[in-house]
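One chain shown below:
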Amino acid sequence: MTTLSIAVAAAALLISAPPSAHAADPAQQEQNKKTVVDFYDKAINQKDFEAASKHFGPRYTQHNPNAGDGPEGLRAFIAFLREKFPNSKSEIKRVFADGDYVILHVHAVREPGTRGSAIVDIFKLENGKIVEHWDVVQPIPEKAANSNGMF
C-alpha cells in the first residue's frame, strides 16, 4: 500500500467515525455543567420538580433500577424525598464534563447527623438538555480501612 493510499484510508476512517465525547465545545461543556448543577439543586435539595423539569430534553431515560423511568419517575422520587426525608441535603463536591456527559461527585445526607452516602451521578445531555441519568451509591462507613476520606 502506498503512503497516499494509507493517508486516504486513515482520512476515510476519521470522517466516518462517530464524534468523540471529547469533541464538544469547551463553552458548551461549561454550560452543561451549570445546567446539571442547577437541575440537581432544584430536584434533590429544593425538591422542586417543576423547577428541575425545565432542564429535561425530549426524553429522560433513568438507569437507576430503583427509580421509575422518565420525568414521572423523577417526580415520584422527589415526592418520596419530600415526604420521607424533608431535611435531606446533597453537597456536590466535584463536577466533571466530558463532551455531552456531566459527572457529579456528591455527599448525600438523608437524615441530618448521619454519615450519608457518596454518590457519583452521571448525566447525558443533548442540545443542552438532560436526557439520561445513571448513579452509583456507596454508604459512608463508620470506620474506613484507610484515612483518605471519600471526598
